Amino acid sequence: MAATAEQGFAGRVGRAGGWAADHARIVMLVWIGVTLALGAFAPRVEHALSGAGWYASGSESVQARQVVQQRFRGQGSYALQVVVSSSRLTVSDQAFAGTVGEVRRILSGEPAVSQVIAPRPGVTISPDRHTAVVVGGSARSPDDMVRAAKDVQGPLAAAASEDIRVDLTGAAGMWADFNEANKSAMLKSEVLSWPVTLAILLLAFGSVVAAGLPLMLTIVGLVCAAGMLYLGTLLFDISIWAMNFALMFALALGIDYALFVVARFRRALEEGSDARQAVVTAMETAGKAVAFSGLTVLVSLSAVMLVPSPAFRSMALGIMLAVVFVLAASLTLLPAVLGMLGRRVNRFRPPFTRGRMHRSGRLASWAARTWRRPVLTGLAGVGLVAALAWPVAGLETGMPSITVVPEGEQARQGYQQLQQAFGTGAPARLQIVVPSGEAGAAVRVVRTDPGVASVQPLQRSGDTTLIQAVPRGSPSGDEVSATIQRLRSDLPDGALLGGTAAENVDLEQKLTEVTPYVIGVVLLLGFLLLLFALRAPVVAAVSVLLNVLATLAAFGIAKWIFQEGVGHELLGFEPQGYLDAWAPVFFFAMLFALAMDYTVFLLAVTKEQWDRSADAREATVEGLATSGKVITAAAGVMIAVFFTFALSGPLPPKEMGVILGLGVLIDASIVRLLLMPVVLRLLGRHAWWLPASLDRVLPDVRFGH
Asked: Which residues is 497 bridged to in the sheet?
């Protein structure tokens, strides 16, 4: 009888949920096998992931680095630069010379170093002779050089003495120190966030058993994603940040999806269904919304692949892997476990969590009030979001400076000593490779450029000449960027200009170029997925617009904090005067994906009510009352997790935590609880209008039975 009733209303997702409940042991055994198989590789992922990749593939600076790597034995931007300095001793003193010799010995013993270049007067020995630089040429890829930098940091630190400092700096050293600081910050954030997460989960789910379900999805998704990331490193380099973001999204989406499905499952149980019927109902309604939500997240993040940078693409890959496994587990493992638990899902309820989870009377009253006064409420909401978003007009971006590395680390100490001994632009040394026949003309251009402080002796290899120049101004400032652009326009044809500063400039320019395309693709695909799921072009378009407003508001507040430095003492960071260049494109995609998550949850329930009653008011009130509690609980967990990143670690994780946390807060409160009900009120039944031409081509997707 149950099977016949099920066939009358259940679609593919509901029937798949029923099958999983019927074959729970098989489903669980398969997931245990997959998790154990991929989990065997997970412990190795941390050491296999790379620390570099922050450059624009195929750019002029990358081409220059490759030529220097091949023709000049690895003297490119990822060479290891070791700064030996003393306030009392000079390079002529025996102790200083002994330390330099020990540094050369350490670098010579590193397999990733192609050659060791001793300090040279007028080039890598300062005028006052208190500072010398030993260079270890790079014999491997940038990612391998970051690993090599990490390996030699300890021995180099041991080579220092009371009178002599030894600091590894340069691009490889900076990323090695930054990644270690970031790793520490992530661990600290996890320690801070887990107790808060568990408390919110217990309050949201109302029972210990139910609260364990999102943790199950999170662990499965994270372990499987980690194993897949390790296997991916066997084929290509993957940024260590991929794991960080995979962890966050596995936790966030695991909680979101479990909350939505479990809430619907409990409601079905309360309405009299048995465990299997409740699973089918939950999956046909909430499970279908979860499927569309997961697809939307994947589509939004896939747009980041348009950025031609290994770091960006591998970070997006890490998140997408986590989403795939969490989504797959939500659609198969979760219904299997719910089918086995049945009413035991409510066991071990703390006394302070009594009450029904799936519907909120307060939110129903709030939705009814907004229905009565939509214009006043809407104007207040739009005005608030607009005020928060307005500062975006003055947002400035740039590549991170050395200040993202904590004080006291080798890379920052060596960087500052280079500036003190050789000039402000010394850490941003420009490298120009040019055919030897054009070397004379190229040297004249470089020497006469007002942005160049000094030119080092030329190096020749076959028919190629290497010109190295120290620019004026701060390496992360506009002056060096302008010098690079000017030199590129004046140098002879065939010349390639590279170096660390040039790689940063090229990546920033590429980000500026592709950001509009990424945002456009995200918005278009998001609209199409909502149209496919809701069969309502008007509400799909309005939802995308509201998500954009919430994202702009988050970036507006971020501009105050990170560009203008408001509250930087409280958060414990040193303002750079701009937002890191990757934030607009990457964090926009992430925020839009999370906002679409809530959009699908709210509108799926609202559409279910509309399909049942064809009453716009009832659909809006019941949609918010039924989904609002789930959205609020899920947002509370994500806000807590994201804000823990704002309290620890270097600047980029702080930017990530603040922007994502603010975005979720604004979206789940102002947009979901205020603006969306107002829009549905003003549109009325027109919100669900579907032209006949679209009705013929769109599938008949329904979230009810």
From this structure: 432
The proportion of the chain whose per-residue pLDDT surpasses 70, expressed as a percent, equals: 96
Q: How many CB atoms lie within 10 A of CB 347?
A: 11
Q: How far apart are CA 35 and CA 33, in angstroms?
A: 6
Nearest Cα neighbor of 376 from 617, 623, 682 is 682
Which residues touch 328 (CB under 8 Å, ≥6 apart)? none
pLDDT of 460 higher than 60? yes
Burial track 304-328 (b if 16+ CB lie within 10 A, e otherwise): bebbbbbbbbbbbbbbbbbbbbbbb
CA angle 668, 671, 672 (to 5 degrees): 55
Specify the pLDDT at position 649. Answer: 67
Q: How many other β-carbons are positioned within 10 Å of the β-carbon of residue 31?
A: 20
- Residue (of 40, 208, 75) closest to 145 by Cα position: 75
Per-residue pLDDT, averaged over 390-416, amounts to: 90
Q: How far apart are CA 622 and CA 361, in angstroms?
A: 10
pTM of structure:
0.86
Asked whether the predicted pLDDT for residue 695 surpasses 60, the reply is yes
Handedness of CA 146, 148, 149, 154 (dihedral sign): positive
DSSP letters of 329-371?
Answer: HHHTHHHHHHHHHGGGGG-S--GGG-S-SS--HHHHHHHHHHH
pLDDT tens across 505-538, in order? 999 999 999 999 999 999 999 999 899 888 899 9
- Using an 8 Å Cβ cutoff, are 21 and 275 in contact? yes
Q: Which residues, in sequence order, are CB contacts of 189 under 8 Å at separation 6+? A: 641, 644, 645, 647, 648, 649, 653, 657
Q: Say if residues 589 and 518 touch (Cβ distance below 8 Å).
A: yes
Phi/psi at 584 (5° precision): -55, -45
* Residue 512 CA neighbour count, 13 Å, CB half: 11
Percent of the chain with pLDDT over 90: 50
Residue 6: predicted pLDDT: 43
Helix or strand (DSSP H, E) at 607:
helix 583-613
Report the b/e string of 517-536 with b at 16+ CB within 10 A. Answer: ebbebbbebbbebbbebbbb
pLDDT band at 39 (very low <50, low <70, confident <90, very high): very high
State the pLDDT confidence band at 590, using cuts at 50, 70 and 90: confident
Could you tell me where the beta strands, DSSP code E, fall in 417-573?
Answer: 430-435, 452-455, 459-461, 464-471, 496-498
Is 352's pLDDT higher than 70? no
β-strand pairing of 131-138 with 579-580 = unpaired
Q: Tokens 């379900």 belong to which residue?
A: 213
| Angstrom distance (rounded) from CA 249 to CA 109 | 41
